[in-house]
Amino acid sequence: MEESLEIAIVGGGIAGISLALGLHTRNINVKVYERGKSLREIGAGIGFTSNAERAMLALDPRIYHAFKKVAAQNASDWYYWVDASDYSGDGMNGNGLSEDLIHKMDLGPRGFEGCHRAAFLDEIVKLLPVERVVFDKGLVDIVDGENSGKLVLKFSDGTVERADAAFPVAGGTLLNVVAFVTDTNPWPFKEKLTAPGTKSEAVAAFSKFHPTFRAIIHLLPEELSKWAVFDMKDHPAPTYSRGCIAVCGDAAHASSPYHGAGAGFAIEDALVLAELFENAAGKKRGDRARMVRAVLESYSEVRLERTQWLVEGSRFMGEMYEWQHGRDRERCRDEIEWRSRRIWDFDVGKMVVDAVGVFEGKLDQLNGVH
């Protein structure tokens, strides 16, 4: 009887735990190595559009239900884009300020729902057996195991683990408010992505916005955090796999948040990987390492174009929201419409079929089938 595949996931964030659940549900041996003493998510809220929800249902329906459990239920099925900025002259409504609807789209029942990142992570980690997650495991190096055909993972505590494949992944009444200000100066902190901020800075930055939005800013606490927004547009990964190691989620295609789709794309990544490994587990393996490489190469080929398009598109949307590409409202509506539909209406089932087809083709090549 052949030894089962062993998959190591380095990092216990939403992407890592979702992938682990997808693999575990498909009876693939998996272990998550987290450098912290516990799992935790920080940052702004998180939302999932319809493509991500369909991927959750296919990956493990419990992930979908965990999200719905903690999601804030919207009163409307519609998603709105509103201009509340200061126009020169008389503005769009005659008083120098505009609060105009630019576009709205129907997202289906309950619309574009969001939740607190930590609340979602807490729910999905409950679904994973406790022995599948190991804490205080800071990865130092990954090397080929030579004759064993496995990867050797070396950790900062001196311990060593072996796996067939490894994935480094990026890991009351509340109102989630995220306010963006473009600053062309270099980020001054090399070792961290956050800096202290103040409410007065935010008030000054949005002083010319519509009173409704200024009122929201005034609800913020006195002490705030500034978050640097970086993406991989200028330095895209040429591939998401190398040998028996692959990256997914933010580790593969870190994006700015202007499409609200980065986490959802990580769920899509996890679905492809889980389905490919399930397919591989049902085959006679022979050379395990070559089989794993075929899985990871197939994943990379299927996911590369869509995910890197998101990185580019999200940056463009952020610039457009600030009118950096002109104030053509009709063009703005058109860009919002087609880009959003490309994300939301994506066929995750076809994605899986395509990935399996690529994988089968690679196996045929390995086996000398033409």
From TrEMBL:
MF GO annotations: FAD binding; oxidoreductase activity
Source organism superkingdom: Eukaryota
Keyword set, alphabetical order: FAD, Flavoprotein, Oxidoreductase
UniProt entry tagged with the keyword Oxidoreductase: yes
One GO process term, biological-process aspect: secondary metabolite biosynthetic process
Pfam families, sorted: FAD_binding_3
SUPFAM superfamilies the record matches: FAD-linked reductases, C-terminal domain (SSF54373), FAD/NAD(P)-binding domain (SSF51905)
Domain (FAD-binding) ranges: 217-312
Record-given protein name: Putative Salicylate hydroxylase
Protein's organism: Glarea lozoyensis (strain ATCC 74030 / MF5533)
